[in-house]
Amino acid sequence: MELELADLNLPCDKGHPVIIAGPCSAETEAQVMSTASHLAAKGCHIFRAGVWKPRTKPGGFEGNGEIALPWLRRVKEETGMMISTEVATPEHVEAALKYGMDILWVGARTSANPFAVQALADALQGVDIPVLVKNPVNPDLELWIGALERLNQVGLKRLGVIHRGFSSYEKKIYRNAPMWQIPIELRRRIPGLPIICDPSHIGGRRDLIAPLCQQAMDLGFDGLIVESHCRPEKAWSDAEQQVTPDSLDDILSRLVVRNHDSITEDLRILRTQIDEIDNSLMELLSKRFLICREIGAFKKQNNITILQSGRYSEILDKCEAQAGLCGMDANFAAQIFELIHEESVRQQLEIVNK
Ligand code: PEP
Ligand code: MN
Predict the structure, then answer these.
(1) Would you say 105 and 88 are in contact if contact means Cβ atoms under 8 Å apart?
(2) Whose CA is nearest to atom 9 of ligand 1?
(3) pLDDT score recorded for residue 263
């Protein structure tokens, strides 16, 4: 199905990405107003705050619900910013519209569920509002496009997507693996669809926000949605990944926004592939060291020496032979494995001497 799209028409400074910023959750009226006024003073035009929070386990802060909506309306009235929040049910849609929400987004857990997306689509029939669809938590492009199709079918044309990474079982560098090839493929399939990057939920850590924002710009994404809180360390949800309005301003002022011509576009795609491979290399290495540490514990228990030279030469011989077969220099491969071996021994010694 071909999507029928219309411009999102969101405010941004000329030649700059659309920026949406605000706390993970609307906690108190004071927190909302303080964060919003700081963001507005930095020139931010669109405010975000979660009112209904999907939590993995019961007992966590699940959002204030409807009582937080007047706080967002106050943000709009007093700062002039547009306001946005996540909706997951038809009741959320009704309440959000009642309080003048300008933009809605569909969360990652909701876009993974076609029944829930259809219920949202039905509730939004006949409403002209921009809707941003987060990628489903699982890396399934068809499911993501399917959610857009359901919304488009009821007449919503001002659609965009938010790339927030994909969850996985293994512990990774990122909270949610970016798998950049998926939004890139989405762009190829639906070229007119605005893509906004959510570095906060991809990174899960403050120090990853700046490099992820830059990577999104390098890939020609159209905007950023960043969690920002007046006192991030005190946040009731996602405290590790929120940044102050000042630090967001600093991150944005250092962003290099590229022009979108096709030669650099091709180069960007190739670089993205390199970045993906480098991430995989790091993850593979960390898996290798994890097993090394297990071996270290085993050797300690059974009183076996760490260094067994026969084993080391066996590894080196094997990778030198493999290097030749893969078109790599045998010496280069040997050097890499010497370094890996050195680090493995260091990590095993740490375990043995614990
Ligand atoms: C959020 O934006 O606060 C949120 C809950 O995000 P996600 O749906 O991507 O987990
Ligand atoms: Mn969050």
Answers:
(1) no
(2) 108
(3) 65
Shortest CA distance to 135 belongs to which of 103, 109, 174? 109
CA distance 224 to 218: 13
What letter would DSSP give residue 255?
A: -
- Ligand 1 atom nearest residue 48's Cα: 2
Fold of the domain built from segment(s) 18-258: TIM Barrel (3.20.20)
Residue 224 CB coordination number (10 Å)? 25
User: What pTM did the predictor assign?
Assistant: 0.81
CA atoms within 13 A on the CB side of 119: 14
Measured from the CB, is residue 107 less than 6 Å from ligand 1? Answer: yes
Count CB neighbours of 75 within 10 A: 25
* CATH code 1.20.59.10 for 265-352: yes
223-243 pLDDT, tens digit each = 999 999 999 999 999 999 999
Taking CA atoms only, the protein residue closest to ligand 1 atom 6 is 107
Residue 22 has pLDDT above 80, yes or no: yes
What is the average pLDDT across 312-322?
86
Q: In this structure, what DSSP letter does residue 12 have?
A: -
Task: Please indicate whether residue 92 or residue 258 has the higher confidence score (pLDDT).
Answer: 92
pLDDT digits (tens, 9 = 90+) for 84-126: 999 999 999 999 999 999 999 999 999 999 999 999 999 999 9
Instruction: Give the per-residue pLDDT at 270.
Output: 83
Per DSSP, helices labelled H in the chain are 29-41, 69-79, 90-98, 108-111, 114-124, 141-153, 181-189, 199-203, 209-218, 245-253, 262-302, 309-325, 330-352
Q: Would you kindly state where each structural domain of the chain is located, as residue ranges?
A: 18-258, 265-352
CA 241, chain centre distance (Å): 11
Query: Ligand 1 pocket check: which of 24, 84, 105 to mutate, most ligand atoms within 8 Å of Cβ?
Result: 24
Nearest one of 195, 194, 212 to 203, comparing CA atoms = 212
